[in-house]
Write a structure and sequence with these properties.
single chain; 313 residues; 9 strands
């Protein structure tokens, strides 16, 4: 993809500056204070629109060392390429916002891509992919206090549960604390739970219905309040039974895309018919579609989530 100029806007007004991906390093060197000023001035919006549904683009994989897409181990290695794909996605009607780490969100902010969008901060990225300490998933990015100070709309925590790994209890404790602290600030706490097991030298998330149900019950009980807790769950078999395990609003994740994209879209469409499922949080499947057409892939997802109201987001 070629470098794309991005024109920030506020309430539809033309911007004073046009920032390109190629400008980001120079801004960081000479005017780092622009980042804080831009967060303070950012145009915000309600968390959900009238239809109560949401489509978020996920971009927090690289900070955990997860750069692969469909077996290509370095597909997400280029930051300029990733940013251009994200800017394309965020500009499409029906895309409500983005989930990312501070480095990604700060770049998108400077590019003007977060105006009028939901911004969810990814909080724990310490459980690096493939590490012996992967289950000790420490909070190395946003805290609840920093999410509130920057005017983000919530925080997301990966919460993997491995009964054979003592690192799990530290992750559970940290996730519970984050849920409590976000609720105190009336901000979304997006919990992404998995039952995980170590096999063949790596951690594997168990994607069968019963494991997913168990993870839901553990995640729902984290923190001193569930008032602002949302779940981020995989699309698994018997999803009707799985979603009966909770009353918490749920966004479905895309994961590393495999197989025919049309089959993926069909599974999303069925899942979105369930009352507790309120949308999608998808990264690689939309940002790296097989045909390379990011806008078309995002438009399909937006239609699935918002239907004819997609353009209102």
């Amino acid at each position: 993809m070629t470098t794309t100029p991005v024109t920030p806007t506020t309430a539809g007004a033309p911007a004073k500056d046009t920032v390109r991906v190629a400008d980001l390093t120079e801004i960081r060197v000479r005017e780092p204070e622009r980042i804080a000023a831009a967060w303070a001035a950012r145009q915000r919006r309600p968390l959900v629109r009238e239809d109560g549904r949401m489509l978020l683009v996920a971009a927090d994989h690289p900070a955990r060392g997860a750069l692969g897409v469909r077996g290509a181990g370095t597909a997400m290695a280029s930051r300029s390429d990733l940013l251009e794909r994200l800017v394309t996605a965020l500009a499409r009607p029906g895309v409500d916002g983005v989930l990312g780490t501070p480095d990604i969100l700060d770049d998108l902010l400077l590019l003007g891509a977060l105006e009028g969008k939901v911004a969810i901060g990814s909080m724990n990225r310490g459980g690096l992919q493939g590490a012996r300490f992967e289950m000790d998933d420490r909070f190395t990015a946003y805290s609840a206090a920093e999410i509130a100070a920057r005017g983000l709309d919530g925080g997301k925590m990966l919460t993997r549960i491995c009964l054979d790994d003592p690192g799990t209890v530290a992750t559970l404790e940290a996730s519970a604390r984050a849920v409590t602290e976000l609720a105190e600030r009336q901000l979304m706490a997006m919990v992404e739970p998995f039952i995980s097991e170590r096999g063949r030298g790596r951690m594997v998330n168990q994607l069968d219905p019963d494991s997913t149900i168990k993870s839901i019950h553990i995640a729902a009980g984290l923190g001193a309040s569930s008032a602002y807790t949302w779940l981020k769950l995989p699309v698994v078999d018997e999803l009707d039974r799985v979603m009966d395990a909770t009353t918490l609003p749920t966004l479905l994740l895309g994961g590393d895309p495999q197989g025919d994209p049309q089959d993926t879209y069909a599974s999303w469409g069925h899942a979105l018919e369930l009352p507790a499922v309120r949308g999608l949080v998808v990264g690689r499947a939309l940002l790296f579609p097989p045909d390379g057409d990011v806008a078309a892939a995002v438009d399909i997802a937006a239609e699935l989530v918002h239907g004819t109201q997609g353009g209102a987001a």
